[in-house]
Amino acid sequence: MKDLFGRAILDYQTSNSPQDLITETTISEEDEMSVAYLFREYDSMPLIEQKALTLSYGKTLDVGAGAGSHSLYLQNEKHLDVTAIDISQQAIQTCALRGVKNAAVADILTWDTEKFDTILLLMNGTGIFGTLEKTSRFLEKLRSLLKPNGQILIDSSDIIYMFDQDEDGSYSVPADTYYGELEFTISYKGEKEESFPWLYLDYNTLQNIAVANNLACELVAEGEHYDYLARLTLLH
């Protein structure tokens, strides 16, 4: 991986002529994404993210931290003990430059240092699962990192609205794959990243898989555009 996403984040942080990211998926055309958005303050965050940060407590793990905006808020405004992790070295470098005290380059599937009260996965947190088939593996791992009264706060979107609807109300979705499984491509400064799988998960499917992995699943908030925040806790 060229880590163009991380490069864009670090370029913005260091004023190294940052440009917009170009994103594209298997069901959507190229779209520009402002890197500045990843550096937003709490007041500029979607209500779902604000709700997740409000609900966060105790020792917290921010998975896929990106530029570290969520970690910084929890660290500086709520005074929580936060660890930010991301697979991007340049993103974690940016987190450190911005003042995140605990930031590490890490894959959640191999992260095994301690347990947490809150685990955050925001900005379509289900995306890192990649495919529906791998979701249980990730939830099992996340479950293993929870303290007894811990919580996982995760958001996603039901993208069924992006598919054509038939006269009978049904949707024309792929027959051989779950409709939320996409291939995602990022371009930056004329370079293109290798495509990678990215998963959007509807709430009912998340709930079913969570329960199958001994996690209770609660719908905490719904956004304005088919997005939602869920809270997962240990089933006792």
Automatic annotation (TrEMBL):
CDD domains per the UniProt record, alphabetical: AdoMet_MTases (cd02440)
Q: GO BP, one example? A: methylation
The alphabetized UniProt keywords are:
Methyltransferase, Transferase
Q: Which InterPro entries match?
A: Methyltransf_12, SAM-dependent_MTases_sf
Q: Which GO terms describe its molecular function?
A: methyltransferase activity
Q: Where is the Methyltransferase type domain?
A: 61-151
Among Pfam families, the record links this protein to: Methyltransf_12 (PF08242)
- The protein here is known as Class I SAM-dependent methyltransferase
- Specify the taxonomic lineage: Bacteria, Pseudomonadati, Bacteroidota, Flavobacteriia, Flavobacteriales
